[in-house]
């Protein structure tokens, strides 16, 4: 199965996938991410987790899902895409930028718009990460839900089959017991000899 995602910006893009429902041998799923140029960016072979890669070029990024661990089985996969803007710089550059930002904050202390913009950016970033953790929780709950649903159907069918087997065996036992005690009406001439 192949899934294609168009990426226009260049921040890191980690899609999160989670095996929700699996019928077969294994819950592992191999995922390969190809860049628009055809190069393999990232590969993961696991039942759950993130695929982190940096989108350096604009175009169609291709995710290929391979289900070879789970022979002759089906699998339902939950996909969640998110763009994370992380600091991909050296620690010394980060310290210099923080120092410059502090100086700018001191200069712009009376500038209300910059303070509101910074607070809005921080709030947006934190809400995004809250949504990310909420998505992880939803994925975990849905994994349990689909597992319980498949087990419920399995148990229901086996219970029905075993109930029918018990009723049928009881009927057959009753039939054989009746045949054991069948007595024929006999006349004086047909009486068995002792």
UniProtKB/TrEMBL annotation:
Per the record, what is one GO cellular component? Answer: endoplasmic reticulum membrane
PROSITE patterns according to UniProt: GOLD (PS50866)
Q: Where is the GOLD domain?
A: 1-83
Task: Give the source's domain of life in one word.
Answer: Eukaryota
According to the record, the segments passing through the membrane are 155-177
Which keywords does this Swiss-Prot/TrEMBL entry list? Endoplasmic reticulum, Membrane, Signal, Transmembrane, Transmembrane helix
Location of the protein in the cell: Endoplasmic reticulum membrane; Membrane
Instruction: Answer yes or no on keyword Isomerase.
Output: no
- Membrane disposition: Single-pass type I membrane protein
Looking at the keywords, is Membrane present? yes
Q: What is its main location?
A: endoplasmic reticulum
The entry's family comment says: Belongs to the EMP24/GP25L family.
PANTHER family annotated for this entry?
Answer: TRANSMEMBRANE EMP24 DOMAIN-CONTAINING PROTEIN (PTHR22811)
Q: What is this protein called?
A: Transmembrane p24 trafficking protein 6
What species is this protein from? Answer: Cynoglossus semilaevis (Tongue sole)
């Amino acid at each position: 199965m192949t899934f294609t995602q168009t990426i226009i910006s260049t921040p890191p893009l980690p899609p999160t996938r989670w095996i929700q429902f699996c019928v077969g041998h294994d819950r592992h799923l191999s995922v390969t991410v190809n860049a628009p140029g055809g190069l393999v960016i990232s590969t993961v072979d696991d039942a759950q987790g993130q695929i982190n890669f940096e989108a350096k070029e604009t175009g169609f990024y291709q995710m290929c899902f391979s289900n070879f661990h789970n022979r002759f089985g089906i699998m339902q996969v939950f996909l969640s895409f998110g763009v994370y803007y992380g600091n991909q710089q050296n620690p010394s550059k980060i310290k210099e930028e923080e120092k410059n930002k502090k100086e700018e904050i001191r200069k712009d202390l009376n500038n209300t718009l910059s303070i509101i913009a910074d607070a809005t950016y921080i709030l947006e970033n934190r809400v995004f990460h809250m949504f990310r953790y909420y998505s992880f929780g939803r994925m975990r709950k849905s994994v349990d839900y689909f597992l319980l649903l498949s087990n419920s159907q399995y148990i229901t069918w086996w219970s029905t089959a075993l109930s029918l087997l018990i009723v049928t065996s009881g009927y057959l036992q009753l039939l054989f017991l009746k045949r054991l005690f069948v007595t024929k009406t006999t006349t004086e001439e047909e009486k068995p000899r002792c």
